[in-house]
């Protein structure tokens, strides 16, 4: 997720270069994105390069219902301008504002995508990951994983729900 962009910085304003991006694993806080793949487009701006990244990846998350580790697919897309701290043609240091939120391209002309990927990766994490859409979750009494079969507990809530469901069906037919 780092690439030398000296050539791209020497292009004319508005020049666009597109790359295929693949990365087996990118760490983000306490987790990682696996199988990152997509495209990176670099647009030459007056201050550096506008990096437009669009990737898909998978991330290991705990299912919100049954807590089993599960691979979730994640889509991430961002546009961030990277400011060159050195003029690519003259090698002169560029005077920059002290805005620490800005992404920079250092004197080595390496564009480092790891930090924006970390930031946007955190935002792209699913709020309620599920191992499968119909995950049955855990038994509220004994904690058994109900995807693996029913436990010995007496059904409580479920029984009432099925009674209600029965009434609903009868009403529908009666209309
Ligand atoms: Zn689950
Ligand atoms: Zn149970």
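-> sequence recovered:
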């Amino acid at each position: 997720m780092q690439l030398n962009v000296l050539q791209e910085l020497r292009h004319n304003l508005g020049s666009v270069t597109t790359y295929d991006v693949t990365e087996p694993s990118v760490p983000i806080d306490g987790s990682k994105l696996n199988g990152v793949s997509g495209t990176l487009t670099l647009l030459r701006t007056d201050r550096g390069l506008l990096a437009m990244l669009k990737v898909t990846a998978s991330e290991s998350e705990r299912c919100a219902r049954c807590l089993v580790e599960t691979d979730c697919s994640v889509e991430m897309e961002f546009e961030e301008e990277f400011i060159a701290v050195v003029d690519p043609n003259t090698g002169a240091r560029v005077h920059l504002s002290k805005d620490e939120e800005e992404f920079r391209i250092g004197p080595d002309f390496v564009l480092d995508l790891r930090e924006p990927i970390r930031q946007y990766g955190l935002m792209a994490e699913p709020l309620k990951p599920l191992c499968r859409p119909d995950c049955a979750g855990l038994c509220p009494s004994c904690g058994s994983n109900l995807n693996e079969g029913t436990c010995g507990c007496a059904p409580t809530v479920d029984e009432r729900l099925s009674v209600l469901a029965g009434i609903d069906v009868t009403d529908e037919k009666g209309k």
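The first helix runs from residue 6 to 9.
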